[in-house]
Amino acid sequence: AGCGSSDDTTGNTSSAASTAATTATTREPAPNIEGDEVSRLPRAPEATEPGRLAGPTDASEERAFLTSVFHDAQALWQREFAAAGIEYVPARLTIFVDEVHSACGTQSASVGPFYCPADHGVYLDTRFFDALGQSVGVRLGAFARAYVVAHEMGHHVQVLLGITGRVRAADQQDPPGTNARSVRLELQADCFAGIWKHATYERGQLT
Q1: How far is residue 174 CA from its own chain's centroid?
Q2: CB 96 within 8 A of CB 123
Q3: Which of 39, 104, 153, 164 fits a disulfide with 6 by CB distance 3.0 to 4.6 angstroms?
Q4: Beta-carbon-side half-sphere exposure of residue 58 (alpha carbons within 13 Å)
């Protein structure tokens, strides 16, 4: 909830790093993958080293873990943008409890993790993870916690590439299609999170 919840700022889409943006806006939707097609998808090889993406063992380590994940994901996108010759504007991390004041307004913890384009801010409420874990009956591990951070960073990438701005413009021109575009925007942020997750796997930090 609350992902990318404010107006967009513009980004640069003139280079190869915006391939994902171009694909999302110019190609026909890919068909669903089902049946035998799933088994033919390429599989990642087994990790060569034990996983080291250790999650927080108690509440006192939560902030340090989330901050570490944030900086690691940010470093990945900085490298990718630099390689493509696109300016990268760093995101900002704010970890809060109960409520937080952002350029997108004051938000309560009930909103959950969110990204504010107006200040390039990733906002995380530490108690969200415990609440989510209780709803599914298990304590969320390192993978789930890190994924949430990477997903919000995915929204930052969308803003910098101008994807979010184009979606908002399309929403104004075609209001009935707003929900469908919102869903696709979230799925693309998932995809961008997966890029970072794969990078941790390649470094032997994820089994």
Answers
A1: 25
A2: yes
A3: 104
A4: 1
Closest CA relative to residue 122, chosen from 157, 87, 98, 88 = 157
d(CA 133, CA 148): 13
Q: Which amino acid is at 33?
A: I
- Read off the pLDDT of residues 181-201 as tens digits, 9 standing for 90 and up: 999 999 999 999 999 999 999
Burial of 91 (0-12, 13-18, 19+ CB in 10 A): buried
Q: Say which residues have a Cβ less than 8 Å from residue 10's Cβ, sequence separation at least 6.
A: 162, 165
Alpha helix (H) residue ranges in 10-136:
19-26, 36-39, 59-84, 126-136
pLDDT tens per residue across span 26-76: 445 445 555 566 566 666 566 555 444 555 556 668 889 999 999 999 999
